[in-house]
Every structure is written in C-alpha cells, then in structure tokens.
Amino acid sequence: MSAPRTTLRRSLAAAAALPLLAVALTACGYGSEAKDDDAKKANVSAGGKKLSSDTVKIGYFPNLTHATALVGVQEGIIAKELGGTEVKASTFNAGPSEIEALNAGSIDIGFIGPSPSINGFTKSKGKSLRIIGGSASGGVKLVVNPKKIKTLDDLKGKKIATPQLGNTQDVAFLNWISEKGWKVDARSGKGDVSVVRTDNKVTPDAYRSGSIDGAWVPEPTASKLVEQGAKVLLDESTLWPGNKFVITNIIVSQKFLDQHPDVVEAVLHGSVNTNKWINANPDKAKASANAALKTLSGKELPADVIDPAWKSIQFTDDPLAATLDTEAKHAVKAGLLDETDLTGIYDLKPLNKILKAAGKPEVADAGLGVK
After folding, report:
1. Inter-residue long-range contacts of 207-210, CB under 8 Å, 24+ positions, other chains counted
2. pTM, to two decimals
3. Closest CA to 171 of 326, 334, 324
4. Cα separations (Å) of 48 from 14, 45, 54?
C-alpha cells in the first residue's frame, strides 16, 4: 500500500474538533434469543464459532443518517451475530471526536462520515483505520427561509449554516458555491455567501432567531428547520450520479482488524442484516431508530420531522467509494485538504465475502483498496 503524500492541515482538525458526548449504552442480545449466559461465557458467535474478543466497542452518532447503528444496536441484530461478544456502544456528536476515540482505543469500529474518515486516514499516514463497509446515502438538504430566498441565485449575500469547518456538508456546500462561480474564503466563510459554521444542535435556534437564512445540513436537522417554516431548496442527492453519495460508512481500527478479523466480520454481518431489515420494514425501522434516539437524548422526533427525513435516506452496504474520492477532490479544490493519496483507505474483502455468500453483488473500492 502506498502511503498518503500529505495530511489534512492541522488548523482544520483543530477547528473541527467538538466535545464527545458522554452517552453510552450496552446491547447484549436480540430479543429473547440471546439470553444464554453459558453461550456468552463461552464467547460463541451465532454461527457456533468462538470469537477472539470478549467485547467490541462501537461508536456512532445519534443521527438518522446513522440508523444502521441505531437500529442494529436497538434491535440486537448486531449482537445476535456476535453471540457472547458484548457490544459496548458509545455516541458522538462530531467526527473528529470519534476519530480520536478510535485512535485511543476507546472504540474499535465506528459509523462515521467520509470527511472525518479521510482526515483520520491521512493524518495517520494510512495506518490508523480502514473503511470496511457502507451504511447510508443521502439525507442532506439545503433548506432556506422562503421569505428571503426563493431561488438558488438568491443565496448570494445570505448567511447559510453548515455543521462545522471541513465536515462533509461544509465541503459539499463550498464546492457548490464554487461551481456557481461565486467566491468564498473556505476558512473564514466570508465571501459572496456567508458560510456560518453552526453545530446541528443549535442550528434550529439560529434559524429561529434570524441569525442564519438557511442551512446545508443532514437529517433530521433539515426537517427540523422545515417544521419551523423553512423550505427545501435543494436535495444534495440530485447533484450526484444515480442520486447516491456516501453520508455514512463503517470504519475500523487497523489494529483491531488485524487482531480480531472474526469480530469485524461478525459486526459486518450484523450491519448487512440490519440494512436488510430496515429496507424490508421501513416503518418498524423508523420507529426503532426513534426509540433509540429517545433513549440517547431523552426525546423522540415528532412525525412531521422524522417522516420526511427518513424518506430521504437510503441504507446501503455499498460504501459508494467513488463518491468519497470525489468528496476528497472537492476538499482539495476548496483548499481544506492537501493533495492526498487515499490508496488503501478501503478494505472491502470481509464485506464482499459476506455479500458473495448471501448471493449479493460485491461492492467496489474505486481503486482505493488495500493492495
């Protein structure tokens, strides 16, 4: 594998870092099927094979775009594949914090967006992580105040929020601005459009107060703004071939992958089975994700928020590697990422083994897989 030539600029990583949510939960079963204490003590997987680790620490966001993890843990589908290997789950509110946890060994596997995945890979010179599967596509929208903005051209001179400097939505919006022929300084956000970096948790308040005129944000933040009277002006999926782009993928610590490939494969089995269940039971899955959000945040999403948000997200095992490569190029173009060699960021062999056994088509790594 060739190592990356350069890394993300330190100032970007520092600016993007946000605090870790101290929210944790544990999943140890799949309904009544995983209550056999003897099986747990024997550390036996669902297939009857003893696994190499007693625990696996999984990280994800309390977001609908991470519903594979929310539902997989909530319903015990991932735990079922692990048998006696205990799932220890932690939630985060920012990609940099999750990458830090992965590097520190606080988590082994993470559900996370493409930009922090690229960041973690390049900063470690390709040694800290691998992307091992897909999770979700879509679920990102440009929503605006319809009284101030009626067309896309009306964005000029307005204040539009993105979640944080250099995150996946920030890069996408900066690239869109560039393709409009407008100028914005990527770091300060100043220019023909004012890009205001605002935590998703406070974006609805910022919109309500009038301090922003709109936002390029993931779900459910977009639908929360619509509930307040905002209008969807653009769905980002329409900018991508086939209306698909990676919003959430699955990463693993390289150390954990090397030491416990059987556990990684079991988690991937659980992810594939979860996505299958979500797509076959969308209403039940939506309710399960909402129940998980209530457990994590103390509040579930109302129907007029979760219903439109859920419809805009596609759950897929395919990491859509070509779109991650494109997103990296957009970050380079914006001046937020130095020219980088991403060869080796993917290791899709375990996932393709599972897909092939299930009679499903294998997925591609866009030439960025381990050699």
Report:
1. 207/145, 207/161
2. 0.85
3. 334
4. 45, 5, 15
